[in-house]
């Protein structure tokens, strides 16, 4: 029996899946129905009524945005009556709308302008008394209620996609307005998605307002360079004056189908303005030729990683990147059980999930793209989401259905408990089943602080789920027992209906791990740093011995969390030297960085495509046509599970390396608009244990490191674990993110 519903639109036979609306089917078949409040990635707002259609046998008009069709229905999208209805709606929208098009930021791309022209509204038949509506200044966002048409897109996207649920509608007829929810001012993560979806100029970027017209800006399609989400964006650039430099004025996204966090939207000005320095270049070439090793970060393109590999091959030097090496090691252990190189899940799989386990990450700030996918699953699929971590996260409270708090350091034990429950009835080998039979559940329950009743509750809530996803964060990758944790995750994916997503730490951690032959970092002399520490530093950050372009100044590719090779483009030019110039001076011929894109085909999973053949767009119905997906690669599954180690203890004051909202690394720290919160944040309980108070200057000692920060009391936190930001300092990526620490108050004389 077919699940498709057959009906007609304008005499054309079409089919709908169960749950699809008339509007969705019309759009799939390229049949135009006008809208003002509709957005594909949320539930219908149903506030504008522009999408009304006629259905034979039905009295009155039908809202196509929230009405599913029935078999045999005959729908008409155009008639004189519909034209009159839509024209009158536009006249009502235009009542007292300020005539500010000459200075409005939305002019030239305003949906109200477009629809007013489309329906030929040249005179105003309605009137009402105007009211005083002051402009609200909400930090990065300004709101002008006089321009607002109350479409409610901003409210829907904030709640259903982002998860902040920070704005609401204050109903009052013509006096209705958008207000901060349960707050006097806007209290949110400032993703700016409300700006993106606003069809008029009511919600705007405070930094961009009145600086440029939409038609003056050039659009550069690119990929966000701040995390591994691989978010699609467009840099909008313009020359600042007749003799001014080319500058990025703002960042936009295809808001109909994609989202951006605030770092992606507002943290765009991290380019390197350094000029060409021949003396520095000569020193760089000499340093590379004499180097014993190159230490580099994962904030580079695949092409740069390939070229660094060529330097290793030609000069016999070592390559250090602990972030990518740890990920490489983790995925190697995973492959030894799964028999394949790549995990099966994706952001889209998370969005479509109805059961999710998220473990080992403060995901809202580690990777907002994953957070948004989880929010979508929660709001649209009613997903049961288990959030397992030693720390609660206020940003996830509106999304998760079960918080599973475990003790710091016990991730291996928690994964064993999860695997045992999920694989209880799986067809395991005798040796695999023996591993679980030999577990000391009493010991694990006690040491991990995860009881059997919590696991049973989770399994009961997942009972009817059809699309299940397990998400692993960086706490597991940097754990001393990461390899066994990876094997347990592979067991779950292999023998159950869970798909798996492993969250890479940096923008191109995954790409580097697949391309580079990495060595374990060691303290040796003659190390060149490439966007990392070294005796001679080649970097796009300040203080470098030789300057190179930042990622918004380069062509090249990344590999995202979705195992997709994504192109990025030059938004701002760079006047200095690049890595391929160094290779040329060393006798390795690559005249342009993107000459190496086709060379990536040498590595398993990659394709030998020229850079200029890579697509970089989303189609009209939302399909992602950027770059390409890595091919699945099979490998030998010769791994075995190891016995669990003793669970470690983390007593006393513990710090957790975790960045605040909108900050990721030294590049986001460099930007002008993003807030830079550098305090150590902890609870009252932490303060009491450390014998410190709110506002104290403190010295934090952990491992061999010592840093000074101000302490800030955070009422959202509990227990004796404090959050230490890393965007303003260098933290060894191979270290477990939780650290035993010594906290001392600094006394100022």
Brief digest:
With 749 residues, the protein is an alpha/beta fold. Helices cover 26% and strands 19% of the residues.
Describe this structure in words.
The chain has 749 residues and is an alpha/beta fold. The protein is built from 22 helices and 33 strands. The strands form nine sheets. It has a five-stranded mixed sheet with strand order 2-1-5-3-4, covered by helices on one side. The mean pLDDT is 95.
N- and C-termini, Cα separation:
82 Å
Number of helices: 22
Parts with pLDDT < 50 across at least 5 consecutive residues? none
| Main β-sheet description | 5 strands, mixed
The pLDDT mean sits at 95
- Computed Rg: 27 Å
Shape descriptor: globular
User: How many runs of DSSP E, i.e. beta strands?
Assistant: 33
Fold topology:
Elements: E1 5-9, E2 12-16, H1 22-28, E3 52-55, E4 62-63, E5 74-76, H2 80-93, H3 111-118, E6 136-138, E7 141-143, H4 153-162, E8 167-170, E9 177-180, H5 193-197, E10 203-205, E11 218-223, E12 232-239, E13 246-252, H6 262-266, H7 278-290, E14 293-296, H8 302-315, E15 318-320, H9 322-338, H10 347-351, E16 355-359, H11 363-366, H12 368-381, E17 384-388, E18 402-404, H13 411-422, H14 430-437, H15 441-448, H16 452-461, E19 468-472, H17 474-477, H18 482-495, E20 498-502, H19 509-515, E21 527-530, E22 536-539, E23 546-547, E24 556-559, E25 564-568, H20 579-585, E26 628-629, E27 654-657, H21 666-670, E28 680-682, H22 684-690, E29 697-702, E30 705-713, E31 721-724, E32 738-740, E33 742-745
Parallel strand pairs: 1-5, 14-15, 14-21, 16-17, 16-19, 17-18, 19-20, 21-22, 22-23, 27-31, 28-30
Antiparallel strand pairs: 1-2, 3-4, 3-5, 6-7, 7-10, 8-9, 11-12, 12-13, 24-25, 25-26, 27-32, 29-30, 29-33
